[in-house]
Here is the input.
Amino acid sequence: MTSLDNGRNPIDDFVAVVPAGGVGSRLWPLSQPHRPKFLIDLLGTGRTLIQETVARLAPLTESTLVVTGVRHADAVAQQVPSLPASALLTEPSPRDSMAAIALAAAVIEQRHGERIMGSFAADHVIPDGEEFRTTVRTAVEAARTGKVVTLGIAPTGPSSAFGYIKAGQALADAPGAFAVEAFTEKPDEATAARMLTAGGYTWNAGMFVVSTSVLLGHLARLQPTLEAGVREIAAAWDSADRDTVVERVWPTLTKIAIDHAIAEPVAAAGGVATVPGSFAWHDVGDFDSLAQLLTADASGTITMGRDAAVDAVAADGAVVIGGTKPVAVVGIDDAVVVETEEAILVTTRAQAQKVKDVSL
Amino acid sequence: MTSLDNGRNPIDDFVAVVPAGGVGSRLWPLSQPHRPKFLIDLLGTGRTLIQETVARLAPLTESTLVVTGVRHADAVAQQVPSLPASALLTEPSPRDSMAAIALAAAVIEQRHGERIMGSFAADHVIPDGEEFRTTVRTAVEAARTGKVVTLGIAPTGPSSAFGYIKAGQALADAPGAFAVEAFTEKPDEATAARMLTAGGYTWNAGMFVVSTSVLLGHLARLQPTLEAGVREIAAAWDSADRDTVVERVWPTLTKIAIDHAIAEPVAAAGGVATVPGSFAWHDVGDFDSLAQLLTADASGTITMGRDAAVDAVAADGAVVIGGTKPVAVVGIDDAVVVETEEAILVTTRAQAQKVKDVSL
Here is the structure.
């Protein structure tokens, strides 16, 4: 071990990378293209999801990079004032997750040489930071053995919303880590139920820990032009040439998800490990899943981010979010009413998935 | 006939009385105690219901009185600037319909001597004013025979929301008028259906035409203290003593509906006639009945009183009223969304009756 790990101190050679992308279109009008999910205080805690994410990682490292789109760079800088300007990697245009993460890895190597990096989305909800960090520390040690290490989330049910990780043998040289036999695309619910019965499956939350040189090594082999491109950009990143090089090279990078570029082929070759975590984890995708994380008042109504009164008449389990006006819900069970400065949404918890189809 | 009735000229000795009361609590938050139904532009025509009512009566008479509560007198005067101050009879407190109408009758007699008066609520919707006025003209002539004449509304279905008028023999001396055999309280739907099958029944919309002396004569016999009270108030109405007398006498007036005070007992004695009208008539009580009067756009959505966009996703027949923000309705058929400056209502057309139970 290169870090003095008493479970409290930062890990010297560990860099956290926070990809901050994705609108959260089923959470409209709370989230919108100009105000994506990671920039909002989704749970009414007083902190936005990216603020929570950066704070959750802070005890692990003194070095966190955020990778985000040019449109949101200012908002991220404003919301996370602790972030040095150099720690904000701005993508001029979206080129999928592999380019974003590879750029971070290449910039880290360019600046510091090899490091262990961990990638954690900016918009996930993880209530127990301590348990999360314990899992990451285990994953960092496993990554030192040369593996790509994914965090496995303990399933709370046969969800069809996530991909699954199939764990195999425990790894002798990495306590708490297991070989990954395969990644599974989002299954239907029946298949998911069979997987949970069979055992050994965890949810794939897209969180992984890996040495920068291991990651870039896999990339050089599997997506060589992409690897060459991010290396070229990284070499110019902290120089006066950055804009010129980015402008020339970035648009040429292969658009591919890291799952397809690295995780799946490397797993097939035995190069991926998983560390199962026992921390609660929520990818709050719509108002139904959001409501599950909020507490109802004595009348059974859930409110969040608002002070004005709610009256529910013959309407059980109403969810009323945001806004400044009194709201009455009459005769619709599990209604969801969301008011922002820009718009009003009316739906039900059961129909909340369809909010992504709103075009206003 | 004392009037030269070519169907166009005002009727010389006819005075229209417009009782303007009732909140319309199932139309919250459009209607509220401080902004009752008759003061709102319910159909988005650009005119409020009381403005429509006064305009509808104008071709019949040069003399219209509005009876309203003290709280709404200023708003009525503002909305109906053609109304002279003397034509606005202000009730200091609500004492039911008999006191309001008897006061109007007594003030008319005090000012002008006997007149034919017609009473028409301020918050009904009657799209065809011409047909309505033709019916009123017929009723005025019938009232000259000494009858209390009610207008009968042609039923459009077996509604349980209205009382019914049972017509008997045609009156020989009053063309187009029929004796009233009885008034029926709101029936259940099955009873209403039997009544429509039997024939001879019309809806009682509370619109009636009667000579002031006939009305006050019935009142003197049936409710003598009430008659004496309104006579005393009327004698002082256009004098410096009005406030003193009103303050002393008004609170003592019997609280009773005109149906029970006059219509029912006089009908039992053969003194009531009815003139069936063929004009469309709507007592728009809730957002379901309001929606029936509005026109859907090409997508099936009904909007009123708003410019901002509406998007209905998997939501047929959405009704969106008022407000300035874009509204999305997702997955709720026949949803009703109403936004005012003060509040937001979310319900469905089928549940719209329960809006009266909102307490915000």
Notes: The two ends of chain A are 53 Å apart (CA to CA).
